[in-house]
Structure formats: C-alpha cells, structure tokens
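Batch manifest, entry 17 of 40.
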Amino acid sequence: MEVAIGASIAGVRAMASMKLVGVNVASDPLYSIAYAGVNGGLVLVAADDPGIYSSQNEQDTRMVARAAMVPVLEPSDSEEARVFTKLAFTYSEQYDTPVIVRTTTRLSHSQGIVHPEKREKVPDKPYVRNIEKNVLMPANAQKRHIFVEQRLKTMAEDACHFPINRIEYRDKKIGVITSGIPYQYVREALPNASVLKLGLIHPLPRKLITEFAAQVETLYVVEELEPVIEEQIRAWGIPMIGKEIFTVQGEYSAAMLRHAILHEPITEKKPADIPQRPPILCPGCPHRSIFSVMKKLKLHGAGDITCYILGAVAPLGVMDFNVCMGTSISMLHGMEKAKGKEFVQDWVAMIGDSTFLHTGINSLMNMVYNKSTGTVVILYNSTTGMTGHQDHAATGKTLQGEPTYAINIYQLCRAMGIEHVYEVDAFDTEALTTLLQRETKRDALSVILTKSPCALLKEFVPKGTCMVYESLCKKCGQCLTPGCPAMSKQENGIPKIDSSMCNGCEVCAKRCKWDAITLIPRKKGGNAS
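Output type: structure tokens
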C-alpha cells in the first residue's frame, strides 16, 4: 500500500490489492492518504470473505472505508469488476482521493462475459511539491480534514447521477436497495421487484435513495455482512426492512431471500452426504517432521498464519492458538512477560520464513530489546506456502522469477544480537529433538531455523519412496501418528504406503523401532526403483 502511495504521489496511477486482513495491515497508511489525497489515481482492491472460507474473520471492509472516509465501489459481476476498476482511477483523480474497489469471495470466483476496451495510455502527472497537502502535521491535517468532509459531500451529491447507481423500476410493491453479488440474488429471487442498484456504496447518494424509497410500498435493504447501507438509510428516517429478517453472517442466496421476504420454504437440496476431508499437511511436508518432534516433547506452539496452522489439528495438535501474520513471536513475548521465564520453557513460537520477513522481524527485535527469553522456530521452507507459493526476500528470486539478493535470515538474527541461532535440517529429527530440549530450557532467547524446501516447489526432488516390510511390522502404529496422507492402515493392522504420494521424507521410518520401513532411493532422472 505504501509503495502504491509513493507511485501515486510521483504522478503515476497505482493499485494495491489484498484481502480483508491485509486491509487491516494497510489501514495506517490508508487513513493518512485519505487526508493527503492523491496525484496519480490510487486504487485499493479489497477482497472480503462472507462465509469465512479462507480468513480469520468475517469483517466488512466497508466499515473500514467509512471510518477512513474513503469511497467504495462494489461490482456485481465480472464486467462490472472491469468497468468499476477503470472508473475507480477516474474518480480517484477527479475527487483527489484513494478509492476502494470491494470484491468478495463469490465475485472473485465467478465467471462472466466481459467486453475489453482499447487500452488507454494515461500520461503521468507532474510531481509538484505541496507541503500543506502531503505532510500531515497537525496544522496541515486539520485543514485536510475539512477538505475530506467536503469531498465526501460533493461526491455523494454527484453520485445521484453516476451511471453505476441505477434505478430499475418494475412492480413498486417491493423495492430493494442492494449492491455487489447480492444484486444477483435479488434479481433471481424477486424478478418483478423494483431495484436501486448501488455501484458506489460509500458515500451514499442520499437524494437518489430518498427518491426511490418514496416510489415503492415496502423497502428492503439487502447487503451481506454488516448493515452498512441500512444504518445510514435508517439514520435519514426512511422506513425500511433489513437485518431484522436477514442475517449478518455468511453468504446470501436467492432461496434465502425468497424465504425471508416472500416466506417461501427453503427448498435447496442438501449437500450429498460424503466423507469429510479434513485439512492436512502434504506428503513430504517438513512441518510434519517438526510438529511430530514437538508433540513427542509435549511442547506448546504459539502459532501463526499459513500452512503451519494445520499443526493445530489432529493428529499432530501442537499449535495452541493463532491470531494473524507475525504474531506468534509477539505472543510468546507477552506470555513470558506475563507469566515468567519458567512458563515459556514448554513453548515455542512457530513462524515461516516468509511470514518472518513479513512481520516477524519487528517482533523478534522487541524480544531482544526487552531482554526476553524464549525459543523461536522459523519453519524455513523457502516459499510462501499456503497462500500461493510466491517467492520472498530470502529466496533469491523476485515475484517475476528474476534473480535478486537473498536475505540471510541466520545472519539477520545474529545481527540483532541473538547469540543462540541454529540451522537444522527439518527432517533430522534426532538433531531437532536435541535442540528443542536444550533451547526451550535455556535462560536466553534462541532461534532455530528448520530448513527444508516445501514439497510442492517445482525444483523439489523427492529422495525416493518409503516401503513397509510387513514381516517386520509389529503394528504399533507409531508411523501413523504424524498423519501423513500417503499412509493408511490395512485391515490386518499393518500400515500401507501409497508410492504415488510418498516423497520419501522418512518421518515414518524414523519413528519405527523395528526397521520395518525403509527408503527406496529415487533413480537419477526417474522414480524410485
């Protein structure tokens, strides 16, 4: 977000894109640039997640936008997503403001016909030094606040004539104010109803809404998540029906609207009764090795966000909690300050190499500065795992795959003044066990880098596949406890390894006291023999 702001101030149109929790991280610069305004058009594409399909919460970015006094456009289909994004840059420059384009999981996953236009070459704007506008010291910010309030009033008045806000009069017995994906549900559930479809959902076009409300007998506001539009309309004294019949949780559907408004029974077919597929780490994932050692040592994990969140679920179950990216180290820090050094001797902070560079560095510096003790395990798998396998600042590649300088995390930790920093192969369970036993009891801050690449990386080459010698198996089940999806138990109680899934990590083999599992090395240029 800050980089995009810099480009905008220099005079070039710029966009930043992120999901809802990214907006939280970016809110500090967002609130300030709303006061300062823009030079080149500045757009933030924010993806909300009604239904919580892949997020920590179900927050509504529209509420952030209202607090930040930033306009929001919300498309309802693929073509509008294209058109609204283009308009967002125009509005940004016209009204001297950053603009949010809000999408949701359903819109992002939908498909539709689009009509590409000829690319426009927008000339860069000259940079003009303007201290009163761009330096938000209190005296300047006070003046800019007046500007921001007037900007929203002007935009709200102009929005009554924006083509993206349109009235569709049909039967006026029922009128619906809606926006985004819910517009599609309204049209399906209530094809004869009159609709005010809002493309700009902040600031709201009061005159247009008042005009529409006066023309319909019963007015409904249909919006997913929080009653953002509804609360403003109620504040204007306009009678309407909203969240008293609609939920604030999850996604809507046409069937749900028919049930709430027309009192029709919900006739949607129930999903097929199929076996549940719980989330689980991939075969050959280095995190499984680390978590299995932690479980054996009965250590608690202060967790973080990405693949290692799966360390919270069975059968590993070593992560006790997580909040957001980068907080594992800070939470360990807080626990040590609250309960003392002895308490954290059964804990480790777990964070990936990508997340460490994202927000973990500051947390680790704080532990050093505040003389904290504790053990931090950086799960170094050389990628950004669960969220897309992007490169990061320690991989030596840019997001475009070009070579770049690779940050040395080991040396970075040492440069902070941490004396006890160690690197270990994530699959060397013996060495890892020794390190964790020693460092968690140490009266100092220590960092362990467990280095082994993600098994899904293109350059990853399996060592081979593991095989069970049934004649040696004692059916103790120890090899099954790490929960590798390549392993299953046969009816006779003897484990079986699926060679098409096994990556030869040997986590199972190292747990077998009877040497009943062995690695079949991979042939050069081929599969395991």
